[in-house]
Design a protein that fits this description.
Elements (H helix, E strand, L loop, with lengths): L2 E5 L4 H13 L4 E4 L10 H6 L7 E4 L2 E4 L1 H11 L10 H35 L6 H22 L12 H13 L3 H7 L3 H11 L2 H4 L6
Parallel strand pairs: 1-2
Antiparallel strand pairs: 1-3, 3-4
Helix pairs in contact: 1-3, 1-6, 4-5, 4-6
Bound molecules: glutathione.
Glutathione binds next to helix 1 and helix 3.
């Protein structure tokens, strides 16, 4: 049985898939693909992912792309604790949070705030302050929305960790590397407590972003 993830350890969406594999205890190989390097968008890679993104996934010749499809597949195809179970309302919440992350969390937290504030500065480029301010406004709406959906639970949707937690955590990790992110989360204590639990999960510790 061979499971291969194609992608980079710096990628949020690659990490979502790796977290699912780690939580299920599935051994896998990470084949590095630096998708931002033009020369790595080879015809071979585009055959795995026609939209030229990471991750892509291969389980004994079964090819898949799109992180949420991959992590659902990993959950269903392998033994280990279920990451998508519960009554219909709980499952709907898990699906809702995953969709909220893709639609309203990823762009502001990762691109508008983290990349603009830290990654660009690291490359010696000037940050776009308007974009950061707009990203922070959107981030505040996202954190408030997720806090309301959590409604006092240990993990995002209840007592068990699910694909919803694994989707949000890699985005939150980037956001909380910024000073603005750390300041903002103090206004959302429930989410702050969730992050303290989440960041110490062995799956998170096993998949750190490169320093
Ligand atoms: N919808 C895709 C999103 C994947 C994605 O955006 N990956 C980023 C890295 S975190 C990427 O490949 N970006 C390359 C690009 O946009 O050119 C999924 O769920 O897997």
């Amino acid at each position: 049985m061979t499971v291969t993830v194609y992608g980079a350890d710096y990628s949020c969406y690659v990490r979502i898939v790796r977290l699912a594999l780690e939580e299920k205890g599935v051994p896998y190989r990470l084949v590095p693909v630096d998708i931002f390097a033009e020369e790595e968008r080879t015809p071979d890679y585009l055959a795995r992912h026609p939209f030229g993104k990471i991750p892509s996934f291969d389980h004994d010749g079964f090819l898949l792309y799109e992180a949420s499809a991959i992590s659902r597949y990993v959950d269903a195809a392998f033994d280990g604790p279920s990451l998508l179970s519960g009554d219909p309302k709980t499952i709907a919440r898990i699906e809702q949070i995953i969709s909220v992350c893709d639609s309203y969390v990823y762009q502001p937290l990762v691109w508008d705030v983290y990349v603009e504030r830290l990654e660009k500065a690291g490359r010696g480029e000037k940050s776009d302050e308007d974009r950061i301010a707009d990203g922070l406004d959107k981030a505040r709406i996202s954190l408030a929305a997720i806090t309301r959906l959590m409604s006092g639970k240990t993990w995002l949707t209840g007592d068990d960790i699910t694909l919803a937690d694994l989707h949000l955590a890699p985005m939150m990790d980037f956001f909380l590397m910024t000073q603005e992110g750390r300041r903002m989360i103090t206004g959302f204590p429930l989410l702050g407590a969730w992050w303290e639990r989440m960041r110490q999960r062995p799956s998170m510790l096993a998949t750190p972003y490169p320093a």
